[in-house]
Amino acid sequence: MQVRDLDADVQERLRKAAAQEGLSLSAFLRRELTELARDLEVRERAGQETTLQAMLGGPLPGLDHISTLEIVDIIHEGRSERL
Length: 83
Prior knowledge:
By secondary structure, this protein is mainly α. The protein is built from 4 helices and no strands. It has helices spanning 8-20, 25-45, 52-55, 68-82. It starts with 7 loop residues before the first helix and ends with a helix.
């Protein structure tokens, strides 16, 4: 799988997050994408919308300048801080 045109700042954040957990970037992304796929499967079984916007609870006023990947990264950072 390849992701084209990924913002360099986003890529660096992902590398840092992976390093903080002692994982390679590939292992980190594999784990995160697997978790996302499980979440999507649960939502599909429940008959809910599976768009990322629906997963995030709809439009987020005032956050339109932040990319989806940045939002996901922030969520994961917060999750790791709670562990």
